[in-house]
Design brief:
Layout (H helix, E strand, L loop, with lengths): L3 H11 L4 E5 L10 H9 L7 E3 L4 H10 L5 E7 L9 E5 L15 H10 L3 E7 L12 H17 L3
Parallel strand pairs: 1-2, 1-3, 3-5
Antiparallel strand pairs: 4-5
Helix pairs in contact: 1-5, 2-5
Length: 159
């Protein structure tokens, strides 16, 4: 079950204007596909709001550069939180000080710099994986979290 403070903050942001969701991950590595799966499940609502890393980091960067000021970007990815599978964290990207963290193809420090220069607010919605083993599917605990997140986003998204 997702913590109330995460639900509250995510709901507030989703209910605002100028938001983009970016799914990160690798479909072949179990729960690492969580960010991509959430985008898959929601992009039919409004393809302009939901972007998959699989479409290329260039398209993400172009959307960020070309987007409106005060735009909010929420990156969704599997992250080792040292927590139970399916647990989540939600934080501003600028609060992440670890340069080892990456968006798979772009160092986080480069991404943070780009976003700050363009007047964007960026967040990481991290989901604790059960397994990142090659060839595994998404685990039940992460799938359950994805369903909860999908419900929160659907309920709060302005049309």
């Amino acid at each position: 079950m997702i913590k109330e403070e995460v639900i509250s903050e995510l709901s507030r942001l989703v209910n605002s204007n100028n938001i983009i969701f970016v799914g990160l991950g690798n479909r072949n590595r179990g729960d690492d596909a969580a960010g991509l799966k959430l985008i898959d499940d929601l992009e039919h609502i409004n393809p302009g709001l939901f972007i998959s890393e699989e479409k290329g980091i260039e398209s993400i960067i172009l959307r960020i550069i070309g987007g409106e000021k005060n735009q909010k970007i929420i990156f969704i990815d599997a992250c080792d939180l040292n927590a139970s599978p399916g647990d989540i964290t939600f934080m501003r990207l600028e609060n992440i000080n670890d340069n080892r963290i990456s968006s798979h193809r772009l160092p986080i420090s480069t991404l943070i710099s780009l976003l700050k220069n363009k007047g964007k607010s960026a967040y990481l919605l991290g989901i604790q994986p059960f397994s990142l083993k090659f060839g595994n599917g998404i685990s039940g605990s992460v799938e359950s979290t994805l369903r909860e997140l999908e419900d929160i986003i659907r309920k709060n998204l302005k049309n």
